[in-house]
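Slack export, channel: ligand-projects

TW: morning all. Re-posting the request from yesterday since it got buried. We need the structure predicted with the small molecule present, not the apo form. The ligand is zinc ion; the SMILES is in the block with the sequence. No rush, but it would help planning for next week.
GE: picking it up
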Amino acid sequence: MGKSPLLDRIHLRQNIVRWGVNILLVLALYFISLIVLIPGIASIGGRVALPWFATPDLPLRPVNLGYCLLARNYVRPTVRTVLARIARNMSTRYQGTTVIYLDANFPFLNGFPLLPHLSHHDGSKVDLAYFYRNATTKERLNTTPSPIGYWAYEQPQPSEVQPCQGKKSWLRWNFDWLQPLFAYTGVDPERTEVLLKELIAEPEIQKILIEPHLKFRLHSDVPKVRFQGCSAARHDDHIHIQVQ
Ligand SMILES: [Zn+2]
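GE: finished. pasting the full token output, ligand included:
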């Protein structure tokens, strides 16, 4: 006798339910470790998590929660202290403004890079979003044009310095086909210049990487603000900072 189609359907349904329960269990275990276990182990190695959400007291948040869910939001305590101070200063000066961070570091293992950022391997680095405004109305925005924070490039004007013009590197992505999606916004020069001044003024911050045209446009031509070169990711979609 052949197998009953009804029994086959019941078995299939049982398998789907079993798989669903297993996946939910794995996700629950991962989430519990993310909230309870990982922060504890990270603190032994001297790293702390940046906040998951902005609050009135600490207006600092990730560009999206994926960075926290993947544990890419860990830094040395000094980085968090500095960012908290700057975020509060920015929010006091520009009400409603939140400082947005992108990739930081993994919770542990010095020397293990947070790909594709080869240098984010010791808790001392973090990427910040520029501030943006509507390109037409000039209204200040509290979000980034790109949902992941990266790849919306603030292009240099023809009259501005362009050291990488005509140079190709497999690490310097341009994503020309994506740029029209972000054309409704541009970097807010006023708030971003103030942010850079705040970063420059922090003695613990050793190095700030942005593209040369923004360094001059935003009046931040000091030795601490540097250019990463043409054989690395562009920095006109984010600001890279490093503490001592
Ligand atoms: Zn970086």
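GE: first-pass observations. The chain has two domains: 9-44, 45-243. The mean pLDDT is 93.
TW: perfect, thank you
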